[in-house]
Specification:
There is one protein chain. The chain has 2 domains: 4-329 and 336-388, TIM Barrel, CATH 3.20.20.210; 425-756, TIM Barrel. Helices cover 43% and strands 12% of the residues. α1 runs antiparallel to α2 (32-52).
Length: 757
């Protein structure tokens, strides 16, 4: 009998239903009861999809209204003091988004994915108390539908490892304070049913794990696995290998261990140990992070190799990680090229792949129904057609990239900055923004209408130019010194460029969750990349013609374009990245020749692409820095190159940032005071820096006094000559009624600080 398993499932809804109802609730346009109603409908639908596909192990508690790390903090009672007194949804969403009295908790990337989690804040003085209501109720909801789920939990060691201590201690010091809460939780879960499987996610185990953390694994899982003989614990890791932790886990009474065999190929080294321990083995062999159709023959061969080491009866076929990182279903892709569509698989399709693969592995093709045989043969044919398709390979592109010799721009930073300051004439503490302005319903409608040919190109451009004119007028009136055009023509900072590059594909409904209600629709790279014509020059030259002030050109960098796309799996990532970099170098040359004096090349996802293991970091840094420098290699000395990075702890990569050699870097620091900036001073960083002075991920409007204080903190670290003043990130997701007063306050704050210097 086949056995299969899905680590987790997307929760935003196949038509982004959760996003839509959350944003209505936040705008006071519907009651919270409507959010609860939609959430229950989504959970039921998602469970039924998995049941109908023949999935044996279906999850509950993988659903969240915002984020599972935030849910875990609520479960433990880890509530920061500034939110005390709030209850229920007011508490939950204030922690995630802030409120008029309290800033939101920090948010950062989930390992090396584009999903963001809320960073729990912990203190030795915390008093933790179990709140298991969400976890217990979801299990009961599924059971009422006749579906017995496994319950997903974020493990205690991962929770601590991804949290921060606000009292300067180490999070792991709180291990023996939270372990009893987990123990109490499992005791409550054990009461739900005669036998329950609990999936405990410990992805922190795939990083370079310190001995003191390694020493927590055995006491943790000895304790939890002994809570009740009615529960079966599966400890799951993903995104890399976890061999050090697995060596310890096999000596605990957990029932099973789940490993990722696609992104953690070295996990094969642990197979013998797991087999000897007699535990169940959950084999992650269907890609949960990418959208390419599973190659059934390759996966079956991998499972066969595993079964040579491991008892076949103890193997369960699984996704490599949660399907949260892939879009919902291909059934809404009505406009996609059929040839390319046949190469793809989204979350719902992956369910069928997992089910079919497990039956093939355990029962063989002789036990397939006619429908299953057809599906298996169609899979083989689709993979073969993709491999030989002439749409994938472009010899001209490959030859140009291979022979590309301009690997960095001319002149040292010291030489360039003297020329730039004289030419550009900006003040100390120069004010600017990161790039985008609010994408209003009118802008989105005009863009959507143009895409479906409901309005003409002239009408569309008229609407976009009116918006650009308004953005420029506001910035000039407000007092912003270096302007941006607002990016109304851009649906997404990666998709927009992908649409204009050869080798890219796009979806109608390929949405994945980035954070909270924020969804992105990543394009996908299926073939060799080239730029048929300029991508931004017309918009930027129009914008510059409307102002005497300097207008920044805005591009997304090669590494971010790569990391925020679904990337082809038939070519090494560094080779794909270099193709993008060469295309961008042409764009920068066209922009500067058209009179654009400052060009920002955003590398928002540079840090998130870092390997999870130190042994692989050097190789990544080498090609990632190479490709940023290739992309800006065409810039003249007088052209000032800016870059922007999101959510990055820079201590370990500051020298790499220096190697990128951008003239100005803007970074997100508003939620961390000046702590993030100190590393720039410590290493003697020469280039100019724009630390964000207010958090754009919260709807609250910062006061002039707050921003003055923030700037003063920055001046404690770096001199005024080296600092730019800007918001944390782009303003696309905010509303004008939040953006205008915030930027006005930012400019006033700069004026006050300048007066005092």
């Amino acid at each position: 009998m086949s056995k299969n398993y899905v680590v987790g499932f997307p929760r935003i809804g196949e038509q982004r239903e959760l996003k839509k109802v959350l944003e209505l609730f936040w705008a006071d346009k519907c009651p919270f009861s409507e959010v609860e109603k939609v959430s229950l409908e989504l959970k039921k639908r998602h469970w039924n999809y998995q049941k109908e596909a023949g999935i044996n192990y279906i999850s509950s508690n993988d659903f969240s209204l915002y984020d599972n790390m935030l849910d875990t903090a609520i479960m433990l009672g880890a509530i920061p003091k500034r939110f005390e007194g709030l209850q229920n949804e007011d508490l939950y969403f204030s922690m995630a988004r802030g409120n008029k009295d309290a800033v939101a908790m920090e948010m950062t990337k989930w390992f090396n994915t584009n999903y963001h989690y809320i960073v729990p804040e912990l203190s030795l003085s915390d008093n933790y108390e179990l709140n298991a209501s969400k976890i217990l109720s979801e299990y009961k909801e599924a059971k009422e539908l006749g579906i017995k789920t496994k319950i997903n939990l974020i493990g205690p060691i991962t929770f601590l490892g991804l949290s921060k201590r606000v009292d300067r201690g180490e999070s792991y010091e709180l291990f023996f304070k939270i372990l009893p809460i987990y123990k109490e939780l499992l005791a409550e879960i054990a009461k739900l049913d005669e036998k329950i499987t609990i999936q405990i996610d410990e992805p922190i185990f795939v990083k370079d794990i310190e001995p003191k953390v390694l020493s927590l694994i055995k006491p943790c899982y000895d304790t939890l696995a002994k809570v009740s003989n009615t529960i079966k614990i599966v400890v799951t890791t993903y995104f890399e290998h976890s061999n050090e932790a697995t060596k310890v886990l096999v000596h605990t009474p957990v029932w099973g261990i789940g490993l990722d065999f696609l992104y953690g190929v070295k996990n094969v080294e642990s197979l013998k140990l797991i087999e000897e321990s007699g535990k169940q083995f959950i084999a992650g062999v269907v890609d949960g992070r990418n959208i390419w159709k599973n190659n059934m023959q390759v996966s079956a061969s991998l499972l066969t190799e595993i079964s040579k080491i491991f008892n076949k009866e103890k193997i369960i076929v699984s996704s490599s990680c949660s399907l949260l990182h892939t879009p919902f279903s291909l059934k809404y892709e009505e406009k996609m090229d059929n040839e390319i569509k046949d190469w793809l698989s989204y979350s719902v399709e992956k369910l069928s792949e997992i089910s079919l693969l497990s039956k093939f592995f355990f029962e063989g093709i002789s036990n397939f129904t006619n429908e299953e045989k057809e599906a298996y043969e169609a899979n083989i044919e689709a993979n073969h057609k993709r491999k030989i398709s002439i749409r994938i390979h472009n010899t001209e592109v490959q030859n140009r990239v291979k022979s590309f010799t301009k690997l960095q721009r001319d002149g040292s930073y010291e030489e360039r900055i003297k020329i730039q300051k004289k030419l550009l004439g900006y003040k100390d503490l120069a004010t600017t923004t990161i790039g985008s302005f609010p994408q209003t319903p009118e802008v989105r409608k005009a863009r959507a209408d143009f895409k479906k040919s409901a309005i003409s190109k002239d009408t569309y451009e008229y609407e976009m130019k009116n918006y650009i004119n308004d953005c420029i007028a506001f910035q000039e009136e407000c007092g912003i010194e270096i302007l941006v055009h607002g990016e109304p023509e851009r649906n997404d900072m990666v998709e927009y460029f992908g649409e204009q590059l050869e080798g890219y594909g796009f979806s109608q409904n390929g949405w994945v969750q980035s954070y909270g209600s924020r969804c992105v629709k990543p394009p996908f790279i299926y073939g060799d990349i080239s730029r048929p014509k300029p991508m931004t020059v017309d918009w930027m030259t129009y914008s510059q013609s409307k102002t005497e002030r300097i207008m920044k050109g805005m591009l997304t960098g090669p590494v971010t374009i790569l990391n925020w796309s679904f990337v082809r799996d038939d070519m090494p990532r560094p080779e794909v990245s270099k193709q993008i970099a060469v295309a961008l170098s042409d764009e920068i040359n066209d922009l500067q020749n058209a009179g654009i004096k400052i060009i920002q090349v955003d590398e928002a996802a540079f840090k998130e692409g870092y390997p999870l293991r130190k042994e692989n970091i050097g190789t990544y840094e080498q090609w990632a820095v190479r490709d940023f420098k290739i992309s800006v290699s065409s810039a003249k000395k007088e052209t000032q190159i800016h870059t922007h990075m999101c959510y990055s702890e820079f201590n370990d990569i500051i020298r790499t940032i220096e190697d990128m050699d951008a003239d100005v870097i803007s970074i997100e620091t508003a939620r961390s005071g000046n702590e993030l900036l100190k590393i720039f001073k410590e290493v003697g960083y020469k280039q100019e820096v724009g630390p964000g002075v207010y958090d754009i991920h919260s709807p609250r409007i910062p006061s002039v006094e707050e921003i003055v204080k923030q700037i003063e903190l920055l001046l404690e670290v770096l001199p005024k000559e080296q600092l730019w003043i800007n918001p944390d990130c782009g303003l696309k997701t905010r509303k004008w009624e939040e953006v205008k007063p915030s930027l006005e306050n930012m400019v006033k704050a700069v004026e006050l600080v300048r007066e005092g210097l």
